[in-house]
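Researcher: Here's a chain I'd like modeled. Treat it as a single chain, no partners, no ligands.
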Amino acid sequence: VQLVESGGGLVQPGGSLRLCCAASGFTFSSYAMKWHRQAPGKEREEVAYISSSGSLINYADSVKGRFTISRDNAKNTVYLQMNSLKPEDTAVYYCNRPGGYWGQGTQVTVSS
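Model: Modeled as a single isolated chain. Structure tokens:
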């Protein structure tokens, strides 16, 4: 199982980023996927969840209405579109497959 995140970077408050997680080594379309984040000095928190078919989606209250999770099962990729970014969204963002599989993370920094 391999999960590789990309798309992080430095963005000003109010800006947008789209994170990607490319998956390999398993039947991607059979698994739900999640995005988590970990800010400095804080515990890792779940940000968004998407079911295997994409029909069920959940968000943390802190990102609801601003972030959108989606997936393309033909491309074995899960996405996190992040809009109206705030400084408190600064964190390392991780892609996660249930069963204990994590990517290496991608840094998102929201600062002016």
